[in-house]
Amino acid sequence: MIETMHHLTIARHILTALLAVMACTLSRAQYGDFGLAEQPADTAAVDDIIYYGDYMDMSGGYNVGDTVFDFTAYDFDGNPINLYDQLAGQRPVVLVSGSVSCIRFRNVFDPLIPGQEVWAARTFIYDHQEDFNWIFIYGVEAHPTDGNCPSNCPPTINTDTAVVQPAVYSERRWAMHDWENSPEHDLPFTMYADNPDNSIYNNFFQRPFGLLALNCDGTVGIRADWVTSFFLDVSNEEELMMFRQNYTSCQIDWEPEEDEDEQDDTEDDTNEDDTTGGDDDSDEDEPVDYDGPDHALEGHAGNGTESDLSEQAPIGAALRVFPNPAQSVLTVVSDAQINSLQLTDLRGRTVAQLTAVDRFLTLPVADLPRGQYVLIGRTPDGAISHRRVILH
Asked: What is the pLDDT of residue 20?
C-alpha cells in the first residue's frame, strides 16, 4: 500500500512537471519578433494597406489576453525602441496608434479644440504622462488624399490634411517629423514610425487611433478601439489607473532563434574581414532596404478596398514632378491643361499657388521648410490630381 502511494506520488510529480513544461512551451511559442536591426532606408517601399473588412470594423488587432509580438521601431532621427525591453520597466506600457490624417488623434493634441471626448483624452494623457510608459506609433494614414485606404476610414479626395498614403519609408518618417513639429499641436511624447511592412499596424491595431495597455509578460490587459471614446467613460479611466496600481514588473524570457543562414553569413563576413588586414570602409551604420519580416497575419497582395476614387470625381491630369526629393527647384509637367497648381503642407496649409499655369513650369522651393508636401493640380472640369513631394 505504501509502495503504491509512493508510485502515485512520483507519477503526480512527473505529470506536474510535464504540464509545467507544456505550459511554458505553449506560452513561449506565442512570442515572435517584428524587429529590424537597422532603421529602414528612406527608399524602402511601404507595403499596400491590407483590407480588413467593412468600414468602421474594429474587430481586428490584438485583443485582451493575447500575447503580443516584439517589435523594434525608430523615431525620426533613427533612435530605436524595442517593445520587450520596454516591458521590463517599472511602468506599464501603453501603445497608441495615430497619424496626421486621423482627425481624432490630431484634435486630442490641439489645445484649442473643444469637445468633451478630446478634452477627456487630452486631460488624462497629459495628467498621467509619468504613470505609464506611453509609446506612440505613427501608423498608416487614416484619411489619405492619395493612395489606398484602410477599412477603418472612408477614402476621401479632399480633406483638411492633404496627406498621402506613403509609398516609401521617407514619406512616413517626414510626415511624423512634421507632425511632431506642428506649431498648432502639442504632443509631449516621441513618436516612432511603423516599419515599411506596416507590421505594427497590421498586428497590434488595425484601427487609426487605438490603445493597448500591456502586462509585463506581453499580454494585453486593456484594449480601446478609440482613444477618445475610451477616456470619455470615467470607468475606463478608473480601470486603467487600477491597472497601473496593481502592475508588477517582470521580464520576458525569450530570445528569437538565430537563422542558420544568417549565422553562416556572419561567420563568412568575419572571416573576410580578418583577411583584409585593414579597416572596413563600409558604412555599417547606413540603413538598408529590406523586404520586411514574415507576417503573423497574411494579407492581400494589393489593396483590397472596393472604393474607386475615379468613380467619385473626374480623372485629373497626369502630373510628373522632378526631381523628387527636391532641394531648390521643382519641375512640374502636366499632360493636360490645369487651371491652378497648389502646394500644401501636411496640415493642408497652402505654401505656394499658381493660377492659369502652363503645362510645363518650375517652382522655386528653396525657401520652404524641408519635409513632405502635396502638389494639387485642378483641371478646367474640376478634376483634381495629387502628387507627393519631398524637400530635403
From this structure: 41
The CATH number assigned to the domain holding 351 equals 2.60.40.1930
Residues 252-294: tens digit of each pLDDT: 776 655 554 444 544 444 444 443 343 444 333 334 433 332 2
Q: Are 127 and 224 members of one domain?
A: yes
In a domain, 364, yes or no: yes
- The tens digit of pLDDT for each residue in 89-137 reads 999 999 999 998 888 898 999 888 888 889 999 999 999 999 999 999 9
Is there a domain that residue 24 lies in? no
> Is 289 part of a structural domain of the chain?
no
Domain around 345 = 313-391
389, 332 Cβ separation under 8 angstroms: no
Last residue of a domain, one of 245, 270, 299: 245
CA separation for the pair 228, 205 (Å, rounded): 15
Question: Hey, what's the torsion of the CAs at 11, 15, 16, 21, to 10 degrees?
Answer: 140
Question: In the predicted model, is pLDDT for residue 159 greater than 70?
Answer: no
Decide if pLDDT at 368 tops 70: yes
pLDDT given at position 85: 92
**65-73 mean pLDDT:** 92
Identify the domain boundary among 245, 276, 303: 245
pTM of the model: 0.61
Q: Is 297 domain-assigned? A: no
